[in-house]
Amino acid sequence: MVYCLPDLPVSLPTATIPDYLDLEALANSFQPILENLIPEQFVKDAVWRDHFAVTGSMRSFYGSDSIAAAWKDTSKIHDPSSFSITGKPHLVRIVKHSWVEIGFSFVTNGTPALTCSGFLSVVPGDDGTWKIWLLKTILEAIQGAPSCDELKPVDGMPNTGPTNGINGVNGVKGVNEVNGVNGTNGISHLNGSNGTNGSHFNGKDFECIVVGGGQSGLGVGGRLQALGVSYVILDKHSEVGDCWRTRYDSVKLHTIREFAHLPFDRTFPSTYQQWLTKDDMARGYQDWAKKFGINIWLSTSLESGSYDEAKDTWTLKIYREGKEETITCASVVFAVGGGCQFPVTPSYENRGTFKGLTLHSADYKSCDGWAGKHGIVVGTANTAHDVAEDMLAAGMASVTMIQRNKTCEYATSVSSPNIVLIFCIVVIPIEHYMGTHERAYNEQLPTETGDRIFFTAPMAVGRLLGLMNLHNKIRNDSERFDALERAGFKLDRFGDLMYCMYERFGGHYMDVGGSGKIAQGQIKVKTDSLPIRYTEDGLECADGSHLKADVIVFATGFVGNLKLIVAEIFGHEVANKVEHFWGLNDEGELQGAFGPSGHPGFWMHGGAVGQSRFYGRFIALQIKARAMGTPLPVYDGQRHKYVKSPKGAQLLGMNRL
């Protein structure tokens, strides 16, 4: 797959904007033109990103002509109206780039009728008039349905702080009755209006079944509940939160606490530490599920599933409470995680000769009992560094990391001066990235507002802004990287964060102290030759050198093709229709995730905690619209086709920014 973001036709505005500007008058001047957008109202390389508002999916349109044509096409379908400027416009300045940000709202009058929001980023044009640089539109609600952003706690449960709903955006506060957290009695009661027929009391027939009870499954389940959709979450674990609780002992979240919430409230109030441990995550998830009465069947595995096209119905065979059961639904959300299904372990000669212990990081828990032994970690991403630090803390005689690729590093001085982010293949500091998180996610802003700030920008534009700032930080922190290189650690300082997140689906390291230990020589690094065979007491490398080991941990990643799991459970006919999960399409949008998958009534969901929280709302809204008999129309016109550009090749590493 080609990584397209460097080649997409986008740029950052360079026009000068004065400090003294009547922002409200400027914003009001754009209100009357929104109903009939034409190319002349945009800069030539403008971008429009739609979040299910009028395209029924995630779409990005590039260039004034394409945007105007797509707006005209979708307006014929949805008949948007009642455009209104919302909030206060504000001037944004980032280094030498500036624009004015204007919020707006509108409704659509097609089928279904929708309530939507949007943002304009406007700049002075070459002709002296103000023009649109970025247009962002967001589906907020289905008219006549409850809000997917608001859900009341069950009776008797505390409300831990303000809710995350956005006042004045949806204008709908419908909340449904809720279900027992264990789900053993099925769904006790749901609002019988707007597509929920109230016939699902037997716990066997649902409008939606969510497979997987991690952050993605819990979040979308809660939003379905808010919308009055009958649902159940199936999870193989015995307790809510076990997807985190069962991980290795030292794992921590590497994003700030305020970024980690599930929908509807602040899952992790200020009583939690800034850098959440696996046990913090598990406790927060369990408390959240109890608080909102999430309908989840624990210790339940999905054995197989089939789709009846004539009835538009899924039949799932599950194993629950020691027996097989059959349940049905109209929609399936497959939220089992997209990147950690099949561990990858290198194959070296003479495995039988090694007398020590080998294991993949998927099976690693801690270094208990390893004191005094010699340890090797194969790999240099997040888990590899965590394991190496654990080995050092456990008092192992030696710790060596085997680096197979260059690694990219990210450093920060925000809140915790020891936090550094390192990504395989590329190297970039994280301090600006953390600062961006804290500007969007803090105790003053509702989380739903932060999500609209953080996640709605076109991917290619977000990449340019992010790397511009990150690389400036790298240039001012050269000694950090010099020290790692002196220790033998291979670096590419000017790397691409988006590539790691959306094409590699990982392969990075956010340093919580490991880099300093490498620079100081406490953790050794082998980079000049790779292992080729086992010996009785370690590994022999291609250059003839020998690494002594009693324990070898392979932190070498996973094969994450979700289609393989879909085929195993639902069959090849279903799998052949769904898109690949993750990776970017020609428009710079994630393929296979959050929107139409290619198969009717089947959605795939996953990603980091923030992505799961925000994009899960759109999955729930699509399913609600389908349950109402008015599915969102999907617009497929004006698709951007990938074109390799010389400029894009130069900017892949972003050394010139």
TrEMBL record:
<dbReference type="Pfam" id="PF13738">
    <property type="entry name" value="Pyr_redox_3"/>
</dbReference>
<dbReference type="GO" id="GO:0050660">
    <property type="term" value="F:flavin adenine dinucleotide binding"/>
</dbReference>
<dbReference type="InterPro" id="IPR036188">
    <property type="entry name" value="FAD/NAD-bd_sf"/>
</dbReference>
<protein>
    <submittedName>
        <fullName>Related to flavin-containing monooxygenase</fullName>
    </submittedName>
</protein>
<keyword id="KW-0503">Monooxygenase</keyword>
<dbReference type="GO" id="GO:0004497">
    <property type="term" value="F:monooxygenase activity"/>
</dbReference>
<keyword id="KW-0560">Oxidoreductase</keyword>
<dbReference type="InterPro" id="IPR050982">
    <property type="entry name" value="Auxin_biosynth/cation_transpt"/>
</dbReference>
